[in-house]
Amino acid sequence: MMLIRAPGVYRPQADTRLLVRAYADAHIPPRRRVVDVCTGTGALAIAAARCAGSVTAVDISRTALTSAWFNCRRLGIDVELLHGDFRTVLPGRTFDVVVCNPPYVPCPHRDPPRGAARSWDAGADGRSVIDSLCRLAPELLSDTGTLLMVQSALSGVDSTLALLRDAGLKAATIARTTIPFGPVLRSRAAWLTRTARIRPGQRDEELVVIRADRPRQ
User: Fold this and answer.
1) CB-CB contact of 36 with 55 (8 Å)
2) pTM for this one?
3) pLDDT at 43 over 90
């Protein structure tokens, strides 16, 4: 699928494709209410819309939402677009499926990310968005709800699983792949090595998809 993206909007790549495949393999029942958090170009929202009852897409970037709007309109897909931080615009609503490709790259900079970096920089541990979504997930999910999220192993898979389980959800890793470092991680390899976030000489990262569900009664 060729998607239009404005400058500064995250380009769908390996993590997007891994999450789209995991969504397809998850056998989500049709006609579900889906929310795509950190939608970017709308790639996940578009993939979910093929069998969803309704799709909501959220992003903090107006430019990203403009790209998502254009892509959905071009493909004839009806998606509700919400601008803002998901932590403030979603509470009070529930969904059957939450999908998210969040920022997850560890970052040595203290200043809040700006521009395109907002789609990948996530604090020193790569968890500034992941932790928030894990804590909010029980409030967002319906009684039979499912969360599907992709992240890098560099940002702590075990921490994500522990947070979701502590919140009362069943959580497990359901897909994974290893890819070479992209330009951002290559530029930070020395810092990542110095702070023991990667092994000396390591130039690849593992991506994983985590699924969380409400336990069946």
Assistant:
1) yes
2) 0.96
3) yes
